[in-house]
Amino acid sequence: MKAAVMGYGTIGSGVVTVLETNRDVIAARAGEVIEVSKVLDLRDFPGDPIEKKLVRDYMDIVNDPEIKIVVETMGGVEPAYTFVKAMLEAGKHVTTSNKALVADKGAELIRIAREHNVNFMFEASVGGGIPIIRPLLKCLTGDVIEGIYGIVNGTTNYMLTKMANEGSDFDEVLKEAQAKGYAEKDPTADIEGHDAQRKIAILTSLVAGRQIDYQDIPTEGITKISAADMKYAKVMKRVIKLVAASKKTGDTYSARVAPFMLHEGHPLYHVDDVFNAIMVHGNMLGDGMFYGSGAGSLPTASAVVGDMVDMARHVDKNVYIRWEEEKLILADSTTDSYKFFVRTSDDENTIESAFKDAGYVNAGIDGEIGVVTEEMTQGEFDEAIKKLSDVRSVIRLV
Amino acid sequence: MKAAVMGYGTIGSGVVTVLETNRDVIAARAGEVIEVSKVLDLRDFPGDPIEKKLVRDYMDIVNDPEIKIVVETMGGVEPAYTFVKAMLEAGKHVTTSNKALVADKGAELIRIAREHNVNFMFEASVGGGIPIIRPLLKCLTGDVIEGIYGIVNGTTNYMLTKMANEGSDFDEVLKEAQAKGYAEKDPTADIEGHDAQRKIAILTSLVAGRQIDYQDIPTEGITKISAADMKYAKVMKRVIKLVAASKKTGDTYSARVAPFMLHEGHPLYHVDDVFNAIMVHGNMLGDGMFYGSGAGSLPTASAVVGDMVDMARHVDKNVYIRWEEEKLILADSTTDSYKFFVRTSDDENTIESAFKDAGYVNAGIDGEIGVVTEEMTQGEFDEAIKKLSDVRSVIRLV
Q1: Is B208 on the interface with A (CB under 8 A)?
Q2: What number is the ipTM of this complex?
Q3: Residues B142, A301: C-beta atoms closer than 8 Å
Q4: pLDDT (tens digit, 9 = 90+) per residue, A45-70?
């Protein structure tokens, strides 16, 4: 079975490594050896074993009738979309690790794959090496999924773990993460929550069977989280995590990406460093959780290769995925209910004019106090908080 | 799509409930409504909606050409084996939650299913509602699985959690677990580790692609674990868990079921109460973990129904499962290496004649001391321990 890799970066080169390292066991599972015969990249890789397989034009892959499976690990929507579409239309199976492509064009590419009796798979697009797409599509099919709560971004989880353990501030930890290669030079997509936003859009679309536009999901990153917030969290025996959440609300879902303060019994409480975990609540299953290496070359490539084996086994069959293109309107996010943590220098009278059942947390920081509100809707909170003259941070509790 | 349920107990009745509760969403995923038309049980269920569907003779199901999917939730090897075999030979798909049947006859029933172009599935046989069989078979196919470490028995995990939290002794906790329905009247299979032994045999067989006989797996239960052991664990910042483990060793695996003392950073450390979790280490993935409700009527039934949906989607196709009948001889378990925790009243000279790098743990229990040995093989330990005159407990560390 011949395959092609589009984009020989961190993950693409990982795919080649996985296929070589585990060649025999993969062949036993796939029914035959899977061999990469072409690699699309505009760069040169002098001395690399794939050097002679490099092509510059994606049409060289489209026009190669021997290639049945194509891996897309370029990232970004274009030109990945144009290339992937052409591959599917040429009757080739495609697997991708590209969450931007899947969040934006997943439903359409699934339809195109179905029309051409091939498969479009994307296990690696969420949770890196952690199996989550296939368990949702193939295992939890007896359940109504009522909630998904994920730590799906390794960079921010590493940073928040560091901040919690070392008391350091955001900027300092970001610099360190960049130096170690855990954060990119331009870390915006991670620290502003855009990466997590796309991932929860994908998971929610799969659970709903309908298109969720990631732009519709209210998203806050971790840039406002400070060492002071971490001090309060410690006093409250909580941790602060960037959580991507969606929750069944009537016939639709409400979704949100934001930092949350998790209580000690929460399954995501102990998910530290670059690890990812996705908790799923089913109406029959109860809570389930999937945990592991959410990023990195080999773990992510491992998930891509898992898709390749599945495709090799289903070379003449489209495996049904329910993700219709018709857009699902998310529930009004101002009706979500939470308890909120607030830091303020206001006095008790002012605080209690806003929140009638306020609880107080003292973390020993002069001139301010932590407040935990009663459970209230986002809309109610947005009104109430206007009564405070000084708000230093707001973090939801779960 | 018509289905039958064999055994209307906890799980069988749960299957009927799941199919009814989530009827529409299951139909959307399966492509059609799945309806239970016959239930095999020797008991009467007066007033139960399935009363009119009851049959006493499994041949009534075999001979019903409308029934395409059969659920086996009777438990035990016989007569389940005879019934399941007859169903497969009659061209019906079968899913089971019965780990005794799968551990004993899994490879053969997979072959029979393949020969009749139907499927034999068993997601619910390990980890209850937690997806683990399908992730191993369909997701982690790019990896060589080098280790599996699972808390796969909810009864014993509940008991050990209670003992750790409350300082109570084994017998007391067992009585309480029985009163609450978490432990059976005859708790032998759980507390002696036999249940976990079958489950790790199934998982190891799937990873190896060959038959592992559960009888070959050295197995210790939790009956010797005492309140005193828990005191030491607390001092050592460890927890005691019944772990079912298997580890790649050359071309085969070494496997073991035993109580282990886990360090605080271990992914299974925080798995408490009746929850199950299975950690998988792949040579490319690194560590992954699957966590959730490992038992109970609806969670387990949810996994059974997941299989039913998969079967409805593959009604004319055998989904390949690699589990050959040829037996794989496990590695010699005396060559496994561990650090061991030992309680003894012997003096230091005696202890150090046995273990040259012994560390000591004082839990404030008069007349004895805790010893942590150097890392050594099981064989070396078995020799060394003979030098002690008093051994009050032995627990491996991980």
Answers
A1: no
A2: 0.94
A3: yes
A4: 999 999 999 999 999 999 999 999 99
